[in-house]
Every structure is written in structure tokens, then in C-alpha cells.
Design a protein that fits this description.
134 residues, mainly alpha, 0% strand
């Protein structure tokens, strides 16, 4: 008869849950801070944002901004839409969409033929850098 050996985990179940909750609270706080920052840049009150997003009341918005509560994906999407901001900025603090770079300014002025040529040049340059297309 084989005996079952239980490995000792580095954390107790309670410690693991506490660490996970702390990480969740940190993420909620960062997300809430970016929502608040964006809302203020848009000259909106919590009441205006909650009404425009149509997802919660001003007190719930306050709790979200202070990181005291999270939100569903649907609520998050509606808040991003109401703020006219990309979700990647609210989640990660960086935006890859609507970023005005020097390169983007040139690309906007190019014809389709010029864009095709640029893409060919970028692929060739990437290959010389050891970056293969996936």
C-alpha cells in the first residue's frame, strides 16, 4: 500500500490568501488612481462619470478610485468608454493606442504604396537585428 506524502507549501492557506488579497488591493489602488487622474483631466466629477458610464453611483465610483473595491469587466469597459481612454492605460499605466509618436505622424501622411514599402523596409531591418517575423 502506497502512502501519500504531502509537500509543505511555502505559505499556509491563510498566508497565501492574504498575499493574494494584498496584490489585488495594490492593483485596485493603481487602477483606481488612474481612473481618478483621467476623470480629473476630463474635468468630470465622480457623479458625472458614474452617470455617463451608467454603471454605478458616485459612492461606488469613489470606492473604485480609492482602490477599496474592484469592478466587473463590463463596468470597467463602460468606465473606459465614458472616459474615452484605452483600457491598457487604466490597467497598466501605458497606452499603445492613440499615442502620437514621430513615426505615427509620418505614417498618417503616407499612401498605401508608401506604407507597403515602409513595412518591407521594417521587416528587412528587423531581420538584420535578428528579429524574425512570427
Amino acid at each position: 500500500m502506497r502512502s501519500t506524502v504531502r509537500k509543505r507549501l511555502p505559505y499556509s492557506e491563510t498566508e497565501f490568501r492574504d498575499k493574494a488579497m494584498n496584490k489585488l488591493n495594490e492593483n485596485n489602488a493603481k487602477i483606481g488612481e488612474r481612473i481618478r487622474e483621467t476623470r480629473l483631466k476630463r474635468c468630470m466629477t465622480q457623479e458625472m462619470l458614474s452617470e455617463k458610464a451608467g454603471v454605478c453611483n458616485p459612492q461606488q465610483m469613489s470606492n473604485i478610485e480609492r482602490g477599496l473595491s474592484g469592478m466587473s469587466i463590463a463596468k470597467f469597459k463602460d468606465i473606459c468608454t465614458a472616459l474615452d481612454i484605452d483600457a491598457d492605460y487604466i490597467l497598466f499605466g501605458v497606452s499603445t493606442h492613440n499615442v502620437e509618436t514621430t513615426l505615427n505622424k509620418y505614417i498618417k501622411e503616407m499612401t498605401n504604396e508608401q506604407l507597403t514599402n515602409l513595412l518591407e523596409m521594417v521587416r528587412a531591418y528587423a531581420k538584420t537585428c535578428g528579429i524574425e517575423e512570427k
